[in-house]
Amino acid sequence: MEHLAAQQRSLPPLPDWPVPIATAMRRIVARGYRAADLRADAIAGALVGIVALPLSMALAIAVGVPPERGLYTAIVAGAVVALLGGCKFQVTGPTAAFVVILAPIANKFGISGLLTAGVIAGVFLIAMGLFRLGTLIRFIPYPVTTGFTSGIATVIAVLQLKDVFGLEPGKLPDHFIERIAALFNARGTARWEELAVAVVTFALLVLIPKVEKRVPAPLFAFGFVAATTALVHRFFPAFSVATIGTRFHSVVNGVTVSGIPRTPPLPGLPWAGGHLSFGDVRELLTAAFAIAMLGAIESLLSATVADGMTNTKHDPNAELVALGIGNVLTPFFGGIPATGALARTATNIRSGARSPIAAVIHAFVVLMSILALAPLVAYVPMAALAALLLRVAWNMAEAHNFVGIVRVAPKSDVAVLLICFTLTVVFDMVVAVSVGVVLAAFLFMRRMADLTESHLNFEAVGEDGDMRPLPPGVLLYEVNGPLFFGAAQRAMSAVQDGIADRSRVLLLDLGRVPVIDVSGLAALENAIGAVLRRKKRVVIAGPLPEPRTIFQRARLEQKHPGLVFAADMDAGLALAARLADEAPGSAPAA
Questions:
Q1: Which CATH number is associated with domain 453-581?
Q2: pTM: predicted TM-score of the whole model, two decimal places
């Protein structure tokens, strides 16, 4: 891995912001791209393309659209985002996480509504990148991402039960509870043939990587299962399973084609053939925002993992802009929304990719597969595709991480995890992330507030570190930690409750307050005002640069006569001693 990382670091980084594709290609070549790099990228791209072929079809079917729509996504978005993005090794295409968002859109608005939502989501992503919001994704807490990722995996797994068991429940409801009920009510339609195909496929997907890692498991598993089921059906006609060819049909030049058509992605209007009203488009805005948010989160998480595997650093904002451009263009070629695919990106890196050319070759391999292998794809059983997505859902759930958080994390983090998981399953990802981030923010504020300490001191620490006794009539109140809205009221409440009545001068030690916000400033002013109204004096000693700047802008000394500042604790003690000797209410000494 170190040797691979050294080879990958030898190539200069890509430009920070997306540029025209032809320019990007010229820059890659001009920066030392050699024949050996092309060979490495060709091998990696071919392997990733083989992996992406069945996944793209399976994910499109899970969304509720024909399988070729997923292939078009891998071709267009895979090439465009690779050349324009901020991560050299990212592979973009349809992903499992999108299924739970895209399936209800396709069910309600049809393919035209889904493609239109993809275009709008692309615009949102471009705006997020231009406003440099990519760096904010890393502030989403780990329990939130783990919770909604495990929730998405659960929903994906449930969606596959229909094809795994060959159930005929009719049109499945959008909501999880009703969907479970519909599948349970259709249990009488289950067929053992479909379950057998799913079990064999799943077993091959699990066992092949353990025996031979260089063989793409999906390619071998699908080829074996498709050939076997076709052969068994030939000799035993009673044995039949649903396949891509029996489930999907299209018309090409007046001829009905079973499975996927042998045609490349062709340009067209995403909303053509649909009947979208203005109200529909307005409703799609919310769905498009959900697509953009999930796309941004998943793509940047995938890019972060790629950084860890290659010791490189991606540009998150460039990646968002490129992802947005890819999602704007892809629907015009019939593709569904796309994002960075973690498993395909990791496969790309492990296979030796050295530049974005590998992802472009992956898109080319998918395109050539459509043109050359489309008739053979028709024999792939639907139960085999469902088994593949069950395997994806299992990997995506990361059950060991989920259990690890529940076992070792604080109860508050466990609560956030379980709430995000439940909301994702019962409602949707946007609700889960929104609620999870808000809960995590409140927990963070509570923890930060616990770090801020305030107490009375009967001795002061001088600038030389020695303890100094307090002058008669002086009370020292020390605040340690950030003084923001989560902690300010508690820190200042003792002052407002009258501790200053025990002295003539209150010395506030703010030398260990690194930051203060407007809520902290308001609480401080209220406390100062409460002391001054009792005819006492207030000295603030040693504010750090940021609080001191805020105090100057707020004109505290002008607003509160009787308040004075001292540069450090020694100066504060001397000033407080002089003020304590004066009569209450007199002007402070110069």
A1: 3.30.750.24
A2: 0.78
